[in-house]
């Protein structure tokens, strides 16, 4: 099911259920005097809803920043990988060709093996990728350079520095995939807080059932929208805002 269809299903469904509950509350004889609670219930509602809104906003912004950071780290890893290959072109053969081949093999490993695992469950069998980077490091470190050619020395040093950037960005990407998203404690607070906010809205009373139902439905839909967004942003490599492997497919295109 499309993320838009599933999102609309949950949001509209929550709004309809909340509005129906509000209509049922008005049918209970014991709730006729609820309008007398409006002043006190309104004050409590303001405090509880405000705290819950802060929590929702904090979690949502943190996850959005995490997705943006994952995108930046993936792009940085891919760009430095290309820079390693380009820097190694100044080295003697067969080192230059070997570096290019290992770089392409590593990109293929990331795209075909690691990315599906990150999207599926977050845990990655990263052994092959690390071994390829180690092979790349050893190849560059052992590359001979002409004593009277400072350009080769500078390119070898540049390739080494750029490879270190690849290491750092790769580790950040794997850490982001294995972070686990929102913890159970935070989900507990989000869900219980949502229930409390909706419970308080039903303690308000008024002469018009329709207005109460619309207010309750709109509030429930808004809360569900935020919860759905949080759920989709938990893993930066899956869900509605998933970071894709396009940066590494671009590496393959450049090197080919």
From TrEMBL:
UniProt key word Ribonucleoprotein: no
Annotated signal sequence range: none
UniProt cross-references to InterPro entries, sorted A to Z: DUF4239 (IPR025333)
TM helices/strands, residue ranges: 7-28, 40-64, 180-203, 209-231
Keywords: Membrane, Transmembrane, Transmembrane helix
Ribosomal protein among keywords: no
Protein name, per record: DUF4239 domain-containing protein
């Amino acid at each position: 099911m499309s993320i838009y269809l599933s999102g609309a299903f949950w949001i509209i469904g929550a709004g309809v259920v909340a509005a129906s509950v509000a209509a049922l509350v008005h049918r209970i004889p014991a709730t006729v005097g609820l309008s007398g609670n409006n002043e006190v219930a309104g004050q409590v509602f303001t405090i509880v809803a405000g705290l819950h809104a802060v929590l929702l906003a904090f979690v949502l912004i943190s996850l959005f920043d995490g997705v943006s950071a994952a995108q930046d780290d993936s792009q940085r890893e891919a760009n430095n990988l290309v820079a390693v290959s380009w820097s190694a072109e100044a080295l003697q053969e067969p080192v230059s060709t070997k570096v290019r081949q290992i770089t392409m093999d590593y990109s293929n490993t990331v795209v075909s093996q690691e990315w599906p695992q990150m999207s599926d469950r977050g845990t990655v069998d990263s052994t092959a990728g690390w071994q390829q980077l180690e092979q790349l490091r050893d190849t560059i470190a052992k590359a001979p350079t002409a004593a009277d050619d400072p350009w080769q020395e500078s390119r070898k040093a540049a390739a080494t520095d750029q490879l270190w950037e690849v290491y750092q960005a790769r580790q950040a990407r794997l850490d982001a995939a294995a972070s686990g998203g929102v913890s159970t404690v935070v989900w507990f607070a989000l869900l219980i807080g949502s229930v409390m906010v909706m419970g308080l809205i039903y303690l308000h009373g008024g002469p018009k059932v329709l207005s109460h139902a619309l207010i309750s439905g709109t509030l429930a839909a808004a809360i569900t929208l935020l919860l759905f967004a949080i759920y989709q942003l938990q893993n930066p490599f899956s869900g509605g805002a998933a970071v894709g492997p396009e940066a590494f497919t671009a590496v393959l295109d450049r090197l080919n």
